What does this fold into?
Amino acid sequence: MKKLFFILLYIMLSQFCFAQIKEDSIKKRFTVGGSFGYGFPMGNYATITPDMYFTNNSMFADPGIHCDLDFNCQFSEHWGVVLFLNENFNKLDPGYFSYLSFESPDQEINYTGSGGAYNLGNYFIGPYYSNTFFNGDIFEIELAGGLISLHQSPINYTLYFNNLSGFPHTSYSTQPAQIYFGLGLELGLKFKILITKGLYITLNSAFIVNDAFTDFHSNVYNPFEILTGCIGLEYKF
It folds into this structure.
C-alpha cells in the first residue's frame, strides 16, 4: 500500500511540475476550508476480535470524531498545493481490559479501567488535481504527506486478583500519558458543491496510512490506517 502511495505521489508531482499554465489562470487562487465528520480506525489502530488478541499488536481504537482544516493554493487550471491540519479523536475500546484479564483453574486476574483516549494529529502538504464542472461544482484528488503525532491520555487500571485460595485483593494503578510520532501519507477525494460565488459545501473522504510510530525513547510501534468521511464548507478568494 505504501509503495502505491509513493507511486501516485511521484506521478502527481511530475504532472504538477510540468503542467501548462494558461494565461487566464496565472493568478493564484486561494481556498480555506474546514470539515467535520467521522474517522474509522483500520489495521493495527483498530479494535480487533478476541481470538486475534495474541497475534496482533492492536491499539484498540474505536471510531471517533474527525476535524479537518485545509488551505489550498491553485497555480494552474487543474493543479495546486494543499496544506492539511486535521485531528482525529478515538476512545480506547473496553475490550482492551478484557484482553489483559486472565483466568485459569487456580487463579483469576480481572482488569477494568478508564481513559486511554487517542488524539491523532496530521500535518500534511502535497499536490492536488482539480476539475471544475460546467455548473461550478469541483472535484479534487489530493495526495499529501508529512508528520503524524499521536497522544494517548492516561489509563486508570483496577486489578482484581484471586488465587482461588481465599486471598483475593484489589489494586489500582495509572499509566501516564503517551506521545508518539511518525510519518504518513493521505489520499483524499473531495466534491465541492457551489452555493454562491466562492462558497462551497464539501463532501470529502480520505485514507491515511503511516509507516510506524516512535516515542521519546525511540521505541517503535506498529503502523496504522484510518478512513475518514466529512462534510464541511470552503471559501475560494
In short: Residues 147 and 183 are 5 Å apart (CA to CA). The first strand starts at residue 29 and ends at 42. Residues 7-13, 15-26, 52-56 have pLDDT under 50 and may be disordered. The longest helix spans residues 2-17.
